[in-house]
Design brief:
Blueprint: H1 13-39, H2 44-51, H3 54-87, H4 93-100, H5 102-105, H6 108-119, H7 126-129, H8 140-165, H9 168-176, H10 181-209, H11 213-219, H12 229-238, H13 242-277
Helix pairs in contact: 1-13, 3-8, 3-10, 6-8, 6-11, 8-10, 8-11, 9-10, 10-13, 12-13
Length: 278
């Protein structure tokens, strides 16, 4: 028997694993399984007709297209925000850092009302954009603005710890060896940040797919134009069309799972490539 056995704070493996499986089953697996079981009442033809109707296809286009665009914007601008907050000192830095978390703290309905008020044609920002022919509220652009707003913190907070652990000496060494700033960023800094950036992108994308409260106020909810799939699911529930609602929910679940699986695969590939290069 070893002289020193590390003391485990949590109980033994069997008890901890059992608690984990029970908790995940109650919170995640059973509700999701119920969704699939409810949609099983539909025949394949009925299911296909429900999930491929023109109105539903239009909602997919808005939901997935705007979510992907918002996550991409957040990946770029979130990297800049995280870099500024970690690498620079300036007056009001703590305030800016706290503002990043506002989308976490605000109820989504409050965020939606605030965005709709700001970007309406008579709002503070909307009246400045109107002479340029740019309309945000009650358009697809409004959906993109709302999803970008709620997704930014996921990227920033994912990147910040990695940037804090990234040693400035690596950049100084690259500079000493004659690398330009672009080469240092591309070959030294970016490979270290890429796994965290992909994670932040995935979290932002997943959050945007399920967003409801902030979008319904600024989008106008016009069928075939600005109606998102979560709103369509709610509408079917209000009409007591439970089978139709669960059919759409199944499509969203499967699509989200496949997309997140793809993103996680890319993240693992990025980690493997980075370790191989090191």
């Amino acid at each position: 028997m070893p002289a020193h056995t590390p003391r485990r704070i949590l109980p033994g493996f069997n008890l901890s694993l059992g608690f984990t499986l029970v908790y995940l089953s109650l919170i995640v697996l059973i509700p999701l399984s119920a969704t699939f079981l409810k949609s099983a009442d539909l025949s394949l033809a009925e299911f296909w007709a429900l999930v491929t109707s023109p109105r539903v296809l239009a909602s997919y286009r808005i939901t997935f297209g705007a979510s992907l665009a918002a996550a991409t914007l957040n990946a770029g601008f979130g990297l800049v925000v995280a870099w500024v907050l970690v690498r620079y000192s300036f007056p009001g830095k703590r305030l800016v850092d706290a503002i990043v978390d506002l989308p976490f703290a605000l109820p989504t309905a409050v965020a939606g009302i605030a965005l709709a008020s700001l970007y309406a044609s008579n709002g503070w920002i909307g009246r400045l954009l109107a002479p340029l022919g740019i309309k945000v509220a009650y358009t697809e652009l409004g959906v993109l603005v709302a999803l970008t707003f709620i997704g930014l913190p996921f990227v920033v907070r994912t990147l910040q710890p990695v940037l804090e652990e990234l040693e400035p000496e690596l950049e100084e060494a690259a500079d000493t060896l004659g690398a330009t700033r672009w080469q240092t960023l591309r070959r030294v800094v970016f490979p270290e940040l890429l796994p965290a950036l992909i994670t932040g992108f995935a979290l932002s994308f997943a959050r945007a797919l399920g967003e409801y409260g902030s979008v319904v106020f600024i989008s106008g909810n016009m069928p075939m134009r600005t109606e998102i799939t979560p709103l369509l699911i709610i509408a079917k529930l209000e009409q007591f069309d439970y089978r139709g609602a669960t059919a759409l929910a199944v499509v969203m679940l499967v699509a989200s799972f496949l997309l997140l699986l793809l993103i996680n695969t890319l993240q693992r590939w990025s980690n493997w490539r980075h370790r191989a290069a090191a």
